[in-house]
């Protein structure tokens, strides 16, 4: 009995071991299958060029904003910094040069660029952009990458067409130029890649030479500049700290609070930014708060305030002593203003939500020492930063927005105290939205008159000619955004 029991135990142990081995093998096989399944479920790695094609196609087909679409896809793709930089260059560069690129492509695409599928058109555009404007990428590499991408996204026929078009363009590079005999507006439109209607309009306003300078400047990479929070530090101390960290910086020639960052990475990701020591802002935009010239203890109205950069700058100018009402029509944008104020440690900003056209119903007449109307506009002064603006706007947009600007000025005018200052600003270079708008306002409001805009402290700004109390800053003046800033004062009740 005992022997049989022992034998059964041994057999049982042997069976247990066998079963364990089988279970282990099965578990191993299952793990391998799961690992394989997990690998298959992982998102395929997206190349910089593929990402750029997807962004450009979304912009063209769906009307997506290039900056938002690019940022979304970059976050999803998790590219290396080098590849993310290439994707960014391809997206913005291709949009900026679209007119010129399509002009060249038309000679080599048999059925015409317009008849191509959107993604194929985008692929050819980024490839031509690399061939013409990016010297660091060999032509054979551009063609090879484009053909491989065409195979992945399409089929053999499309890849063959892409290969043929690009190789033919490279063989006939001498044809890739803009004829010099064209009429001035058409030549500028093609050479500097702007819509013809826009170029013709600017030639009427500024003349041929200035218009060409505007278009050329719009295709230059935008400068990076930050505005020092003077309630926490000084520009000199901030520059010293940045230089010690390895950043290459220089003092702004336009704003006493500005620093140009020539090298140093993304400023919005630094501890200085998080701690509220500075804000990222264009130099031209910094001049708005300086024109408002708010003083400590004053009551200030910012009519269209989001995202709050100019609001915060005014609060800093006042050393956070006084009261700023920062209004915006959108509730979610009010949150952006509050976030700015909290990051910068500013307590004098009261963010509110409402239509700016109703401000005269919400506040008593003559209740503000300073008013800033940074008006909604066509945005044609910031094409360098937002190149898709030039392809999405039309002449009718300018007429429509001008009507709103006129209403806004009339609405807020009664709210200023006699002797106070109203600053009207836009980020456009359109006279209908700028000096013509102010001239029309002054003709209908005898209680207002234009002031000198030359209260700016930097020598660079003193040569800019004022018209109707306003200065038109063109993008070629100081490698900053195109802006218009006018200072008006109320003389009587």
UniProtKB/TrEMBL annotation:
E.C. code: 2.1.1.176
Catalyses which reaction(s): cytidine(967) in 16S rRNA + S-adenosyl-L-methionine = 5-methylcytidine(967) in 16S rRNA + S-adenosyl-L-homocysteine + H(+)
Protein name per its UniProtKB record: 16S rRNA (cytosine(967)-C(5))-methyltransferase
UniProt-recorded Gene Ontology molecular function terms: methyltransferase activity
Compositionally biased intervals (Low complexity): 8-17
InterPro entries named in the record: MeTrfase_RsmB-F_NOP2_cat, MeTrfase_RsmB-F_NOP2_dom, NusB-like_sf, NusB_RsmB_TIM44, RCMT, rRNA_ssu_MeTfrase_B, RsmB-like_ferredoxin, RsmB/NOL1/NOP2-like_CS
Gene3D superfamilies on file: NusB-like, Sun protein, domain 3, Vaccinia Virus protein VP39
The entry's keywords: Cytoplasm, Methyltransferase, RNA-binding, rRNA processing, S-adenosyl-L-methionine, Transferase
Family listed: Belongs to the class I-like SAM-binding methyltransferase superfamily. RsmB/NOP family.
Short name of one Pfam family: NusB
Domain annotation SAM-dependent MTase RsmB/NOP-type: ranges: 214-491
Protein residues bound to S-adenosyl-L-methionine: 304-310, 328, 355, 374
Region of interest: Disordered: 1-45
Compartments where found: Cytoplasm
